[in-house]
């Protein structure tokens, strides 16, 4: 979906945003100024968002940012202040058959097999998908006769995903669906999410796996301290907040200020740009090295007498956006370089956020709780 990325929770949707979705229809999920406190803790501090029909909406943020609280508010499994609408209704009034929910913590009966569990949850609905097909979707067809309590952590999580999609929901909430699942299983879950979205299911995805969110989400909202500090399409967020591509050199010897200056001078001469070079924990980093300039940058390292053990080049990703806008970081940084500026931007965005600003997500629950 084409939306300008924003990093200010207090803003209205940016110009070019299509809050009603690509087809201009009503959003499936709307949150306006959503607030939730636990004692002195403001778990949600004024969150706004909308999710369009058929969209995969990613919600990311550090531990304790408020993601699960938001999912719970949107699924009606906890009370929250503010405007919450799912399919135009308060979350607790939504037809449960339209909603799928995979809570972060879900403890189904342990002495049922995976097949029996999917059957059981499918039986709660008038129309459910075929159990075998759902088990196959999550890669559990071969282990379907094992008791839940004997399954591995990843197999359990796959089974839980199966119970969340067995009713073929119009809106699916997945709170960290792939935690503990091996790479092949993750791919199976990703394919399932992609297929559901292609078939029109709206997916509200919470995850700490930035590669997963970057791959799957049409739009992302980043929560920090109960506030949205950025939202937009992943590629736009990366472009606007991810920083520059960089070349990292791992060196045995510590990087001195003299080496940093020598490399900076060399890169300036060879690339004709004014680079940011900084010492890192295991060597040094040159920011702003485009793929076609890697050779020249390496020559500049050689010129400066940098004896490196290994080199790596990387483009910015959603993980960089996350690290910057949450104020966390990768390695030790120099003064005033791109990471510091971006981290400061994130901190400012969070600090400037006003109650009722930003974007968030709403939700509803199939059977009234974390099952
Ligand atoms: N039932 C509760 N009682 C008291 N405090 C709570 C409760 N649920 C959540 N909180 C607090 O609300 C804040 C947000 O918690 P929440 O679980 O929503 O974060 P999260 O972003 O989902 O974190 P994580 O990534 O670790 O799952 C935290 O400070 C947490 O301690």
Automatic annotation (TrEMBL):
Tell me which InterPro entries the record gives: AAA+_ATPase, ABC_transporter-like_ATP-bd, ABC_transporter_ATP-binding, P-loop_NTPase
Q: Specify the ABC transporter domain's residue ranges.
A: 29-250
Matching CDD domains: ABC_DR_subfamily_A (cd03230)
UniProt key word Nucleotide-binding: yes
Q: Which Pfam families match?
A: ABC_tran
Could you tell me the keywords of this UniProt record? Answer: ATP-binding, Nucleotide-binding, Transport
Q: Which residues form the signal peptide?
A: none
Mind telling me which PROSITE patterns this protein's record contains?
Answer: ABC_TRANSPORTER_2
What ranges does the record give for the region Disordered, renumbered to this chain?
1-32, 329-371
| Superkingdom of origin organism | Archaea
Mark out the compositionally biased spans (Low complexity): 1-17
What are this entry's molecular-function GO terms? ATP binding; ATP hydrolysis activity
What Gene3D superfamilies does the annotation carry?
P-loop containing nucleotide triphosphate hydrolases (3.40.50.300)
| Similarity comment text for this entry | Belongs to the ABC transporter superfamily.
Q: What is this protein called?
A: ABC-2 type transport system ATP-binding protein
Native species: Halorubrum sodomense
Q: What is the lineage of its organism?
A: Archaea, Methanobacteriati, Methanobacteriota, Stenosarchaea group, Halobacteria
